[in-house]
Design brief:
The chain is an alpha/beta fold. It has two domains: 3-164, no CATH class; 176-312, Glutaredoxin (3-Layer(aba) Sandwich). The chain is built from 14 helices and nine strands. It has helices spanning 3-11, 21-33, 39-54, 63-75, 80-95, 99-109, 117-132, 138-150, 154-164, 205-209, 211-221, 237-246, 269-274, 305-312, and strands spanning 176-178, 184-186, 194-200, 226-232, 253-255, 259-261, 264-266, 281-285, 291-294. Helix 5 packs across helix 7 (117-132) and helix 8 (138-150) packs antiparallel against helix 9 (154-164). The N and C termini lie far apart (51 Å).
Amino acid sequence: MTKIALQLLLAVFAVGAPLSGQDVGYYLNEMNTDPSIDTTFNRYIDSLWEQSNAGAIDTTSYREPVRSLRAYYDRHANEITGDKAELYAYFMLLKEEDYPPIIERFEAKRGEYDHRVLTTVGEIYRRAVVAHTGGNLSAVTARVDNLYASGTSETFRAWVQSYLGIPPGQRSPDFRMTDAAGRSYDLDALRGKVIVLDFWATWCPPCVAQLPHMKELNDKYRDEDFVLISVSRDSEPELWRDFLASHELPWPQVIDDETKEGNRRKSGTLTTLFGAGSLPKYVLIDKEGIVRYDSHRNDMQPVTAELIERYLR
């Protein structure tokens, strides 16, 4: 395991450290490819994961493994396998739609780890559905919607909302941004245009893989009432600028005001407004400023030409 990867892994549950797609990617990849830390317990966690996905842990027996996983986290917080144990405990509860223990754990631990831990759990859940069923990921959003409805504390509901993003049909939050060329954009000035926001980062391989598709959309619709804006979650502007200089991305490129100090991350304004804690994320806003598409609610699929044309009419 590289030193950089290890630092990122240890950042996942550092006190107050916001999670990001970068942390998630390194976390999942490194735990799968190099389970060198506390290998015995790591194998135990993986066995629970496999049993849960296979249905071998039923609704009457899953709470004991959850207690075991959480007890391990309490002894090993901020260690890689401790973080993994905590995430799998959330996964099992979410899978069984057992919401009270999720809420209770949140209230007990909210000063210990970042409130967007559910973003990471959701990422693991989505990957599990793809790996084991190839099924419809709308089941994930349905469960999280129910979790949101089960909460009573405003802090808890805000935590869940950061995963859900903005439900289609609601007005977009007001935003202001400045691109790499110094041009400014805001919601009112863009009224009358279909807006696509592409949340990405240079360290996010799935995001980078979609850039050719984004370029095709821009080339096809740039002369119409349409604007594509890519919003980077890079916390190091120099790396972002170097990437732009070496790639042809001829549409507005914006970097969010995300910061990182040591192992602590603080999400940027736009990331927070649009619930883009997990990457990539795509949002379509119609000519009247109404959110019509959020990829986190649509099986993580990017915006298509057909969708854009529907709202250009």
